[in-house]
Amino acid sequence: MKRILLRLINFGKKLPLVIKSIKKIYRYGGYTAINIASINYGEILKEKKVLITGGSTGIGLSIAKKSLQVGATVVITGRNDDKLKKAADEIKNPRLKTLKWDISQINQIEEGIKNTKLLLEGDIDILINNAGIVNSITFPNVTEEIWDKIYSINSKGLFFLTQTLCDQWMKEDKVQLKKIINISSQGGFVGATYPYRMTKWDISGLTQGLGIKLAPHGIIVNGVAPGIIATKMQPNYHAQEDNVFCSLNPLKRIAMPTEIAELVVFLMSDAANFIVGQTILCDGGYSIK
Ligand SMILES: NC(=O)c1ccc[n+]([C@@H]2O[C@H](COP(=O)([O-])OP(=O)(O)OC[C@H]3O[C@@H](n4cnc5c(N)ncnc54)[C@H](OP(=O)(O)O)[C@@H]3O)[C@@H](O)[C@H]2O)c1
Fold first, then answer.
1. Catalytic annotation on 196?
2. What is the Cα–Cα distance from 81 to 79, expressed in whole angstroms?
3. What tens digit of pLDDT does each residue of 258-279 get?
4. Burial code of 15-30, b = ≥16 C-beta within 10 A, e = fewer?
5. Which of 63, 74, 130, 136 to mutate to test the pocket of ligand 1 (most atoms within 8 A of CB)?
6. Which CATH superfamily is domain 34-288 in?
7. Where are the domains of the chain?
8. pLDDT under 50 in the chain at which residues?
């Protein structure tokens, strides 16, 4: 009798936790936990100067953190000063520089590159084309305004920044490799019915095209195509760190931005120098299901 009573008391103590877990499972439709490991790359990017577009939050910020850890000097950009300041306050590293720069403003690209070089105190070695925005209005309801807004950043801004920087690189007497990593999406590998996904197809196509065109010039271009990542771009999943369940891919989970940063830093490093024009999918199997 006493033992049963003790068990009941113990269960009572655990009850709030049990209820909390059941609520979480009910809310997300299932439960998946993750264990994320990080590779210690040492100082694999020592003395590398890196430009990350849209690095004030999410995936770009995670790439910035990992790049700094492995020795790089990094400029992150964004349209919003407060977000950039928040990122700098969080990271607190003198090798992190911030630059307010809207990459959709094509006539500001030259100036943006010039300011980046001033902040880096030298040439850019690696460009991470990460800035992007999303939309969910799909065919047949897409307006010209939505189309233009998405394309101006995700596709046009990325293209002209890349073209301007590569043009400068190709005119220099280079002694070391330059690198570009383009952030596409799992949506760039499955059928597309809305501008966001179509821009991500653009990006993986451009990665392949420029991979071939620029390799003879000592510029290596690759890409990463993330699946659903817990960032502000995914408001439904953003706060879901304690239960990463997601029914949409075979792994039944979303990923954390650090998991993308891990892969991007590998591609940025000289350990990946024979990989050319590839967009590596990191999507829990979404695109092959
Ligand atoms: N999260 C996902 O599930 C997912 C999946 C696949 C691919 N991706 C891609 O990953 C990249 C990063 O997204 P995220 O998930 O990290 O989203 P996020 O947290 O919203 O970050 C987007 C970043 O881009 C910046 N940005 C947006 N427009 C810009 C512009 N015109 N010029 C300069 N910076 C700009 C934002 O800062 P400001 O707002 O201050 O400009 C912010 O720093 C995007 O290309 C996205 O398409 C994300």
1. yes
2. 7
3. 999 999 999 999 999 999 999 9
4. eeeeeeeeeeeeebee
5. 130
6. NAD(P)-binding Rossmann-like Domain (3.40.50.720)
7. 1-31, 34-288
8. none
